[in-house]
Amino acid sequence: MNNRPLELMIPGPVPVSPEVLDAMGQPVRQHYGPEWLPFYRQFIARLQQLFGTTGSVYPIPASGSGGLEAMLGTLIGTDGTAGIIVNGFFGNRLLNIARAHTPHVEVLQAPYERPADPADVRAWLRQRRVSVLAVVHSDTSTGVLNPVEEIAAAARAEGAALVVDAVSSLGGTPVLTDAWGLAAVSTASQKCLESPPGLAPVAVTKLGWEIIDSQRAPSRGWYLNLRSWRQYEQEWANHPYPVTLPSNNIVALDRALDRIFAEGLEARFERHRRAAAQLREGLERLGFKPFADRRWASPTITVAYPPPGIDAGALIETLRVQHRIAVAGGLEHLAGRVIRIGHLGNQATPEPIRRVLGALEASLRQGVPSSP
Ligand SMILES: Cc1ncc(COP(=O)(O)O)c(C=O)c1O
């Protein structure tokens, strides 16, 4: 058994830089009071910049799904009518969350192979009374990028407001929360933000608050309720959040933000695009067939069918055991049929992509054993 640590090329969590790990390992800080608050305020201002919003941002201690539940649950309330676009596994997750909050959920089921079409979304909305529409930006199960800006415009034209799962997109591809007229956006620390898992930053715009404040039946939750976060922000000057914040995770994410802004967002988006192209080209050369057409392929995740006759599960195991590289398998009907490779954050550089391609090539050359 090879005990070398696994190199994570899964679509999150991603490898974290030594500086960020070092920040995570500093002594635990008091998460309120005068020594912490100036730092915290600056941290929130930088998250606002990252989201492209002057609205609220809350670093909710949770995995990505916790942020999605806070966002969707609060925006829909207990009686709102939600529309969910489903063209991947994570669209289905939004659907499950929405159904846990309101009995009134409309589903726009769309093919997994393609992005949702804004014209179809608009025509679909015209037949329904949807107040909050939700979509996944980069569905990590398919590697398809949905056109959020255009879908937001379509929603607006039909009187609906768009909320976005940007868990695997924010920080790797543009997400302009205010400029695109979004109501809310949710992400997670462990993907393009190249930090350890544990924080789910959620942004809510003026439009989002208008929807929340005009609800007849607000969300019943407390912890994952953005109203609680706003109430403490307004009323508890010395501790402007309702719970103990995981200060180490925040210090680590703040250090990652140093790196992200030092690189520059545009340079970063370009780096992700280049990594995606490098991987795609390499995979095609080896006989893999990418799931998403290049016109709408996500710059942060690639999903691909192995060459004919090659078992996806056995290939993943060979990479893990012989090359100590972790890539992921398919979800839902794609389970056992595809591999999923992350190029998020620190993964999106030429060397890791070259390593994963080299390991795939060597595995194919040696002959992949059949699944156990
Ligand atoms: C697009 C997307 N949404 C939601 C999630 C769920 O995040 P978590 O597993 O951190 O709850 C993921 C995780 O992979 C994701 O990629």
UniProtKB/TrEMBL annotation:
This is Alanine--glyoxylate aminotransferase family protein. The keyword Iron does not apply. The modification N6-(pyridoxal phosphate)lysine is found at residue 191. Residues 96-332 form the Aminotransferase class V domain. Substrate binds at residue 340. Its cofactor is pyridoxal 5'-phosphate. InterPro entries: Aminotrans_V_dom, PyrdxlP-dep_Trfase, PyrdxlP-dep_Trfase_major, PyrdxlP-dep_Trfase_small, SP_NH2Trfase/AEP_transaminase. It comes from the Bacteria. One of its GO terms (molecular function) is alanine-glyoxylate transaminase activity.
